[in-house]
Input
Amino acid sequence: MLDPRLFRTDLDFVTEQLKRRSFNFNPEFYVDLEVRRKAVQIKTQELQNERNSRSKAIGQAKAKGQDVQALLDEVQQFGDALKTAETELSAIQQQMEVLMEGIPNILDASVPEGKSEELNVELSRWGDVPVFDFEAKDHVDLGTQLKGIDFELGVKIASSRFVVLTGPLARLQRAIIQLMLDTHAADHGYDETYVPFLVNAQSLRGTGQLPKFEADLFKASDEPALYLIPTAEVPVTNRVRDDIIEAKDLPLKYVCHSPCFRSEAGAYGRDVRGMIRQHQFEKVELVQIVKPEDSEQAHEELTQHAENILKKLNLPYRKMLLCAGDTGFSSAKTYDLEVWLPGQGAYREISSCSNFRDFQARRLQARWRNPETGKPELVHTINGSGLAAGRTLIAVMENYQDADGNITIPEALLPYMGGLHVISSGSN
RNA sequence: GGAGAAAUGGCCGAGUGGCCGAUGGCGCACGCCUGGAAAGUGUGUAUACGGUAACGUAUCGAGGGUUCGAAUCCCUCUUUCUCCGCCA
Output
């Protein structure tokens, strides 16, 4: 959610900024609502004040044993007017809430213009794209040949966009997850955390998935209302909902491995081959809760932490700055890391690192006590994948394949593979 | 799943219809006292919204209701604790 004060003081700026996202914001509608809100709120509070002071007078008169009937008659007149005003006020407030909750974050000045991903800006490349003297297979062919990836089994057990991993490839994904957790915890200073994979609506509201993006979620239960998490960002960031954090405890840095569940509504026909786009996938998520003044640097660092995993695995990648149209609803600025997939001959997203500034914090009421002012102020939140484990598995398979379809285990993963150096049809 | 008890400020805890945003204590902050410290002592110490401000309004787990007036009475829900059952 954006700062309501910004709307009151600089509506033109807000309108202009939202235009960058092609978000259709109607300032006249807002102003009309705000003017009514103010008038009705003042009126309501005046009536409440009248009632309170008269009720007090009744109490005092009663204590003195005086007759209070005249006072009672008088105060009763306020009753109806007050009730009407209160009802009207809460209706207006609710409308305002709905309006504000549906407005996306304001983009950072450095975010490039553009309506879709073609206009994302490449900032850097790392690593050498492997050159094979044979035709590179994709992970589907590799995985099928190795009898480690079974898409039909996923369909049989669940539905399309589910997969079953078996044997050394299943272990390879676990090794990837272990490497990520260990690296982020030991080298990058994150606290490992384990969280619920079902969350309530309030948590999803806090990080911005609700109310706008309910269609992207799997609802697991109506009573109580619980949803499968689309990312560990939701439960991890909601650790600090309604908290006031002491300055000395910041920054908070969490790393969390979890499965992620996405309905992929609206993605019909996209990435249907392989396990690029699944309803369920594993991911290691990085979350930082920081002082506002530190968020920009923390965002850069967190992105580097994700990059370090790609470097450890020696996977070629490029770093993209998302353009205005491709930046997520809650984000002010997002870097995507895209890994090279020889099977597709293309770079594909493997991590998305975003600075939300105070957008999530305002919805979460997540604050810190600023020693300079003594007041609770909103924190900034940052998160990113470090990395998506399923796609990392694909990247390792495709980049480390040989002419026979065997996969050499990257050095960094050897400690987690129990002595296995190569995954071949024979290794089980 | 069954039975019972409870939920008040950072923490403990008082408050059963009116002058209660809430006594008191602990903690914390700033003073006083002291050579310094401890002890003692004084003052302050929630959040949000509106207002230039004075100040006003709301909030005692959440939501609804009764009442001129609710922390206090009624209803629903949530959470916690104890006992029993079941279970990884």
Observations:
- Chain A has two domains: 26-101, 117-423.
- DSSP finds twelve helices and 18 strands in chain A.
- Chain A has a mean pLDDT of 92.
- Residues 26-101 of chain A form a domain with the Helix Hairpins fold (CATH 1.10.287.40).
